[in-house]
Amino acid sequence: MPRTRRLAAGAAITAATVLLLPGQAHAAGTLRISKIWYDSPGSDTGANTSLNGEWVQITNSTSTAVSLKGWTLTDASRHAYTFPTFTLKPGKTVTVKTGRGTNTTTTLYQQRGAYVWNNDKDTATLRRANGTLHHTCAYNSTRHDYNRRR
């Protein structure tokens, strides 16, 4: 059964990051969106470094490798990233960055030239290759604790 987690990020969550809090723990052995960094540090200049400053992490806490080929990661506006041939090993996390770059075993790039994740609220949705919902993670924050200065 898909697991939906709605997370409210606020002053207790620093640097504009959505985390799974201790009271929201998932059952052992899941593949889930584990973290969203939705507001890249500094000004939103649109430069590749800034675009890669926003990202989503997906964690495989199962004991089995999971092929993500054809899976999709979308936001509420339906910007969709389709995973290439990629296997997430047991106990590992992959970071999906918005901008351009060369994919590795720990980081994938959406190859976009524009931001995806809204700075105030959005929903990340992970779907299997057949289109079925696997996991969602939402945030709704005014980021009172976020400091745009470096």
Summarize this entry quickly.
With 150 residues, the protein is an all-beta fold. The protein contains one helix and twelve strands; from the N terminus they run E-E-E-H-E-E-E-E-E-E-E-E-E. Strands 1-12-11-6-7 form a five-stranded mixed β-sheet, with no helix packed on it. Strands 2-3-4-9-10 form a five-stranded mixed β-sheet, with no helix packed on it.
What is the helix tally? Answer: 1
| Share of β-strand residues | 35-45%
**Which class do the helix and strand fractions yield?**
mainly beta
Per DSSP E runs of 2 or more residues, the count of β-strands stands at: 12
Helix-residue proportion: under 10%
- SSE order: EEEHEEEEEEEEE
How far do the termini sit from each other?
A: 42 Å
The profile of the biggest β sheet is: 5 strands, mixed
Widest sheet: strand ordering: 1-12-11-6-7
Shape: globular
Q: Which spans of ≥5 residues are poorly predicted at pLDDT below 50?
A: 1-27, 144-150
What would the average pLDDT be, to the nearest integer?
80
Report Rg.
15 Å
What topology emerges from the helices and strands here?
Blueprint: E1 3-6, E2 17-19, E3 31-37, H1 48-51, E4 55-60, E5 66-67, E6 72-74, E7 80-82, E8 87-88, E9 93-97, E10 107-109, E11 121-127, E12 133-140
List keywords for this structure.
single chain; 150 residues; mainly beta; 5-stranded mixed β-sheet; 1 helix; 12 strands; disordered N terminus; disordered C terminus
